Amino acid sequence: MSESPPLHAPVPPGAEARRRGLNGLLVYTFFMVTGFAMLMPLVAVHFVNDVGLAAAAVGLALAVRQLTQQGLALVGGVLSDRFGARRMICLGVLLRAAGFASLAFADDLPLLLFAMAVSALGGAMFEAPYQASIAALTDERTRPRYYAISNWVSGVATTLGPLLGVALLRFDFRVVCLVAAACFALNFVIALRLLPSVAMPERPPPLRHGLDLVRRDRAFLSLVALMMLYWFLAVQINISLPLLAQRLTGQVDSVGVMFAVSAGLTVLLQYGLVRWLEQRLSTAQVLVLGVVLMSLAVGAIGFTDGFAGFLLCIGGFAVGAVMTRPTQQTLIAGMADPRALGTFLGVSSLSLAIGGGLGNVAGGWLVDVAATRHWPWLPWSVFCAIGLLNALGLSLMLRAPRVQALPAA
User: Which is one Gene Ontology cellular component term of this protein (predicted)?
Assistant: First the structure.
């Protein structure tokens, strides 16, 4: 990344506006994650068990959301660089609210795909501007700490969201969808009132300017490519793991228990564990170690036959996720060129688009194959192998001096 001044960077707000904006983003994060977490883990369970769709079909719908959202996040990032992050966030959360509301009335695969596509389009509009806002309002000194706090808030929301979703499910799945949509409608107000409007340059750069910067940054593109394998593994928390939790107990409440264990560990460990690790390891080392732990934990699921053992593996997976979330965010934001933050962070979303999309499709398909052929170990062995391959690739790529010079997680 060039050391020259950001020739086309937007004018940053003052210190007070930065503090207000970062606090506003924490509130925004809470409702964003709560709305998503109360609904998305129940989609697979509802449409497989209640509507009667195949797990592979529901995995396809989840992949459509993943591919559409992260695949078009680059568009949201480019538009954010040109028109401002707050405008794109406001547009995106309204589209997400509409998508979640329409999901309440989906009773077949085409309607499910439509609702997922609309909600994904909203996510594509707000995800990169949201990440760019954090990167713009923090610096290399404050960014790692802010990501740790933000992920702690996400952990609290991820704990409450599934529990609230399961509680509302006792009334009806439609109620879950509408309350989740209301969370994003509320974020429209939060974005208007609490997020600063960063002054854009009088003559914005051409749309292709940021893309040219990304294209020439081979180290950044290498990291994006490797993170595809990471997201293939990480998205199993939304497809194969909830399906197994429900099948082990025969009760949908077990999905809420699974997420409570995962998010509870996030709340307890996120800030303290990251601070402890940053005194002993580099950002890159923490990321690689976290991926290894996630891989081994999901691989161990293939050797468990009870819900208690399953929850123990979920705990290991959650601790690995605690280590990888802030570190991969810090690395991506630190390697992004400040002259085109939205574009760089939009391109980084392609890793989740491709890796997460394939992970959702493969996760649903492998669960079906494992059940049909009575190979319970199959999905978890595949996920473990892919995760360990990812850890190996990251350990080699992240030895570069440019990465080692970034602040600790």
Answer: plasma membrane
The 10s digit of each residue's pLDDT in 156-174 is 887 788 888 888 888 888 8
Phi, psi of 323 (to 5 degrees): -75, -30
Q: Amino acid identity, residue 110?
A: P
Asked whether 66 and 119 are in contact (CB, 8 A), the reply is: no
Helix (H, G, I), strand (E, B) or coil at 409: coil
3-state secondary structure 325-354: HHHHHHHHHHHCCHHHHHHHHHHHHHHHHH
**How far is residue 164's CA from residue 167's CA, in Å, rounded to a whole number?**
5
Which residues are CB-neighbours of 97 under 8 A, at least 6 positions away?
Answer: 122, 181, 182, 184, 185, 188
**pLDDT at residue number 3:** 41
CATH number at residue 276: 1.20.1250.20
Amino acid type, 226: L
**Identity of the residue numbered 235:** V
Helix (H, G, I), strand (E, B) or coil at 199: strand
The reply to whether 70 falls in a domain is yes
For residue 372, give both structure tokens: 């049909």
Is-contact 321 259, C-beta < 8 A? no
Beta bridge partners of 11: 199
Tell me whether residue 21 is in a domain: yes
Residue 327 lies in domain: 15-196+210-404
pLDDT over 70 percentage in the chain: 88
In-domain check, residue 201: no
In a domain, 5, yes or no: no
Helices (H) and strands (E) in the chain, counts: 17, 0
Mean pLDDT across the chain, nearest whole number? Answer: 80
Q: Quick check: 292 pLDDT over 90?
A: yes
pLDDT at 5: 40
How many distinct structural domains can be found in the chain? 1
Residue whose C-alpha is closest to residue 167's, from 158, 176, 159: 176
Please provide the size of the chain in residues: 409
Q: CA 304, 308, 313: angle at the middle one, nearest 5?
A: 60
Q: What is the DSSP annotation of 96-162?
A: HHHHHHHHTT--SHHHHHHHHHHHHHHHHHHHHHHHHHHHHH--TTTHHHHHHHHHHHHHHHHHHHH
The pLDDT-based confidence of 401 (bands split at 50, 70, 90) is low
SS3 305: coil
